[in-house]
Specification:
Elements (H helix, E strand, L loop, with lengths): L3 E4 L4 E4 L9 E4 L4 E6 L6 E3 L6 E3 L14 E6 L5 E2 L12 E7 L2 E8 L2 E8 L6 E10 L5 E14 L1 H4 L3 H4 L5 E5 L13 E5 L9 E7 L5 E5 H5 L9 H5 L12 E11 L4 E12 L20 H8 L1 H19 L2 E4 L3 H21 L14 E2 H11 L4 H13 L10 E3 L4 E2 L10 H16 L8 E2 L9 E2 H13 L44 E2 H25 L9 H19 L8 E2 L5 E2 L9 E2 H9 L8 H12 L1 E2 L2 E2 L2 E2 L25 E2 L3 H10 L3 H11 L8 H4 L7 E4 L10 E4 L4 H13 L2 E4 L2 E4 L9 E8 L2 E8 L8 E6 L2 E3 L3 E2 L7 E8 L1
Parallel strand pairs: 39-43
Antiparallel strand pairs: 1-2, 2-9, 3-4, 4-5, 6-13, 7-8, 7-13, 9-10, 10-11, 11-12, 12-19, 13-18, 14-15, 15-16, 16-19, 17-18, 20-38, 21-22, 22-23, 24-25, 26-27, 27-28, 29-32, 30-31, 33-34, 34-35, 36-37, 37-42, 38-39, 40-41, 40-43
Bound molecules: beta-D-glucopyranose and 1-deoxynojirimycin (NOJ).
Length: 836
């Protein structure tokens, strides 16, 4: 069953009934100001950091689902009947309803009793504010007298404190209600009133929020209980019910922003009302106006508010946003025989990659915004799907991440986006973390050709004076693993590797203890085959990078190690894997604290895991000796399901003290044999590496959300973005997805389909072309912007092979090999690729 449809021409997903199985959300903003918005206008906003600069409140884990957001209410003043044009929170049955989620905007349109309304929500580029444009049309056939109410609930900035420290925060809320007009006559804003939220502005904060409306107000409210009425909910606010606001001023308690506008519409008449909700900072020494007062200095904010309250300016900002996305998505466009592939690659997967780049795992409907900052391994992997869109921002991210690296080459597992400092609560010791920096940097250079990043001076542990070239950081990343080998010469796992729940040194028997940070063992025994594979991959990247960097940069640059040194590290580790990490039919997973193997036929539960099969083959293991095919056949036999590939089998039926969180989940969920989508693309990539395009694409389709749209009642999450997990075959709800949006699946699946299945892959030497596709495809076309050149690539497959390139011509000229590198300034280039 579907709850909507894809409108590919408009690049929108259109939801046609409001009661989707779960809130189906979207993100507003792609720079510094962000919002989450659901198909019924639920959600919240923040500036840069969902924990430390939360603008509006949201109550997670609430019932009914998704209560609280950017609400507008309409009231027919003749009958007293009121409704929510976004369905929530009043849940009045609407005569028409449609929600269009696009890139950075959402439009909710509905009709009730002849009044059509359409609210467009978005964040203009370059601004820290959001615009709600509400267009009302009277289609009732007679004149109407309407009231329009807005309502948001301010968060007292620190979302964690806001949700916990009530003895203090019930007494700190402050607002200001002030006229908008600029002092200069005719400068705009005459007669308009703005609600300012200024909690703690009188003391150490130099920022405030504002909520403005383009119309003269019939009234307003800033105290929640005055608007709602004691013991009344958002579904039945007293002000809306009675048709009048109480002009309340919040002193402590729960500051809100609500405007009340009277709208008289003749039959057929239309009117637009604009709301602007924003964040603003003042210089520390210019906070107040007059300076000796406690009144917010509004000199610099007023022109911004006035600008965006004008519909023409709002429209222009919206069009600029649309054009921006046309430009970003235009960097990779494909036409294949498969619609689900086309729309995911061309629109939704790329869009999701922007969101994961911005949010890491911090704020979604499944991530509270207060639990996690930017993950080290996560953000490095997120770059894979994002870097081609805005390489400059990828560069900045790499420098921020590496500045949190420890001197011993390890890494803070997370950093806080506002402070950009490593998060001590989570600390370090996840032994896979540093290797991901190499993968991230390699991806950046392959895309951009910007070798200068290697000598960018970067601090260690954010310490002034500790600056060293980024290349030094990469070397220390590699050294970190070499310094931490276990009894079998495999890398020690530390707190965990990519699988956060494989906590082999944790041994926690105390309820509520964090599996991630509790460490009861000294960590000198438990080893990870996964890190071994990742290390080999990272060493090969270092080898390629060093080779090419030498060519590009000559001897002026200090390379401590040579390309061959890295290849030697890789081949030594490879021998170790064959000696201790190969189980006969697949790669083993780990050795526990007792030195016992995991992910082997010797284990009755957890005898085969997906991760080492993916990463070891991606690192090139087993391609020549046939073991890669063996391992992949084992994956197909033991792990594949129609809904995707589960993480491991057999699922852990009980809690094992020595394994940690992985065994804490009921069988079939999350890391305990759920379909943990992030690792599925590794198998797709591995399948391409052994040339099996049919299999790779088959796995791709199983978790492609668009291909699952028809089973939305089972899948439950949004059909336009990947979810972190789909319940595995051991779960009662096999096929049900959870934790949509913020997952490494976005970047990896984008890499799997674009770089390995379609095979258009940036390399150190240029654009490599190596498609591994389903044999029944006749071919496909790609437009790829790469290092300032636009490549129009036409791939034909006359012999219906999965793999193999017979010839490539560039602008009609035959080229040798399959790496193309047009000169900068070449403009548009036509590439013909014949498979065979
Ligand atoms: C989840 C993991 C996650 C980890 C870190 C665990 O509870 O299952 O997927 O990576 O927490 O927050
Ligand atoms: C989600 C985390 O964000 C990621 O870092 C981890 O690799 C996976 N869970 C697997 O545990």
């Amino acid at each position: 069953m579907k709850y909507g449809y894809f409108d590919d021409t408009s690049r929108e997903y259109v939801i046609t009934q409001p009661d989707t199985p779960l809130p189906w959300i979207n993100y507003l903003g792609c720079e510094e100001y962000f919002g989450l918005i659901s198909n019924t206008a639920g959600g919240y906003s923040f500036y840069r950091d969902a924990r430390l600069r939360r603008l509006t409140r949201y109550r997670y884990n609430n019932s009914p689902l998704d209560m609280g957001g950017r609400y507008l209410y309409l009231r027919d003043n003749k009958s007293g009947k009121y409704w929510s044009p976004s369905w929530m929170p009043t849940r009045t049955k609407l005569d028409e309803y449609e929600c269009r989620h696009g890139q950075g905007y959402t439009i909710i349109t509905s009709k009730f009793n002849g009044i059509k309304s359409s609210a467009r929500y978005f964040v203009p580029l370059g601004e820290s504010l959001e615009i709600w444009q509400m267009t009302l049309t009277n289609e009732s056939g007679s004149d109407s007298d309407l009231s329009l109410f807005s309502a948001i609930e301010f968060c007292l900035w620190d979302a964690n404190d806001d949700a916990t420290n009530f003895q203090r925060n019930y007494s700190i809320g402050q607002v200001e209600i002030a006229p908008l007009a600029l002092e200069r006559r005719g400068a705009g804003g005459e007669g308009l009133t703005v609600i300012y939220h200024k909690t703690e502005y009188r003391e150490r904060r130099d920022h405030f929020a504002y909520f403005a409306c383009s119309e003269k107000l019939a009234g307003y409210d800033t105290q929640r209980e005055s608007f709602l009425g004691n013991y009344q909910g958002w579904d039945q606010p007293q002000a809306v019910e009675s048709g009048s606001s109480s002009n309340s001023e919040a002193h402590g308690w729960q500051p809100i922003g609500s405007h009340h506008v009277r709208v008289h519409l003749k039959a057929g008449e239309q009117k637009q009302v604009v709301f602007v909700l924003g964040y603003h900072e003042n210089p520390k020494d210019a906070k107040f106006d007059p300076p000796e007062s406690q009144i917010i200095n509004k000199q610099t904010v007023k022109p911004i508010i006035i600008k965006y309250l004008q519909p023409a300016n709002a429209d222009e900002a919206f069009n600029t946003l649309r054009d921006y996305w046309t430009m970003l998505l235009g960097k990779f466009q494909v036409t294949t025989p498969d619609t689900d592939t086309n729309r995911m690659v061309n629109i939704w997967n790329a869009y999701q990659c922007m969101v994961t780049f911005n949010m890491s795992r911090s704020a979604s409907y499944f991530e509270s915004g207060i639990g996690r900052g930017m993950g080290f391994r996560d953000s490095n992997q997120d770059l894979l799907g994002f870097v081609h869109m805005i390489p400059e921002r990828a560069r900045e991210r790499i420098l921020d991440l590496s500045a949190t690296q420890l001197k011993n080459g390890g890494a803070f597992h997370q950093y806080q986006p506002l402070t950009k400092r490593g998060n001590n609560d989570v600390g370090s010791g996840f032994n896979d973390d540093p290797a991901w920096l190499v993968i991230g940097v390699a991806a950046y250079i392959k895309e951009s050709g910007d070798w200068s990043i290697l000598d960018a001076p970067v601090q260690y542990e954010n310490e002034t004076g500790s600056e060293a070239p980024l290349y030094d950081h990469l070397q220390r990343s590699i050294q970190y693993t070499l310094d931490r080998l276990g009894p079998n010469n495999l890398p020690l796992i530390g707190r965990a590797d990519w699988n956060d729940c494989l906590n082999l040194n944790c041994f926690s028997d105390t309820p509520g203890q964090s599996f991630q940070t509790t460490t009861a063992k000294d960590g000198t025994i438990a080893e990870s085959v996964f890190i071994a594979g990742l290390f080999i991959l990272a060493c090969k990247e270092m080898a390629g990078l060093t080779r090419k960097a030498k060519e590009e940069r000559g001897d002026s640059f200090v390379f401590h190690l040579s390309s061959d040194d890295y290849l030697k590290f890789a081949s030594d580790m490879e021998s170790t894997v064959w000696a201790a990490g190969w189980d006969g039919d697949w790669f083993r997973r780990a050795y526990d604290n007792f030195g016992h193997v995991l992910g082997s036929k010797e284990n009755t539960e957890g005898s085969i895991f997906i991760e080492p099969q993916g990463i070891c083959i991606m690192a090139g293991l087993g391609i020549e000796n046939g073991n890669a095919v063996k391992a992949l056949d084992s994956v197909a036999e033991h792990l594949a399901t129609p809904h995707g590939i589960v993480l491991q089998q057999p699922a852990f039926s009980q809690y094992y003290l020595h394994l940690g969180e992985i065994s804490s989940y009921p069988p079939g969920y999350k890391e305990n044999a759920g379909i943990f989508c992030h690792s599925n693309p590794w198998i797709m990539i591995a399948e391409t590496m052994v040339g099996r395009g049919d299999k790779a694409f088959d796995y791709y389709k199983r978790i492609n959300p668009s291909a699952r749209e028809g089973i939305s009642e089972l899948h439950k999450c949004e059909p336009y973005v990947y979810a972190q997990m789909i319940a595995g075959k051991d779960a009662a709800t096999h096929g049900e997805a959870k934790n949509s949006w913020l997952t490494g699946t976005a970047a990896w699946n984008y890499a799997a389909i674009t770089q390995y299945i379609l095979g258009i892959r940036p390399s150190f030497d240029g654009l490599e072309i190596e498609p591994v596709i389903p044999a029944d495809w006749d071919g496909f076309k790609v437009t790829r912007k790469y290092r300032d050149v636009t490549y129009h690539i036409n791939v034909t497959n006359p012999k219906h092979v999965c793999k193999g390139v017979e010839k490539i011509t560039v602008n009609g000229r035959l080229v040798e090999g399959n790496v193309i590198h047009a000169e900068k300034g070449a403009g548009e280039v036509n590439v013909e690729v014949v498979m065979g």
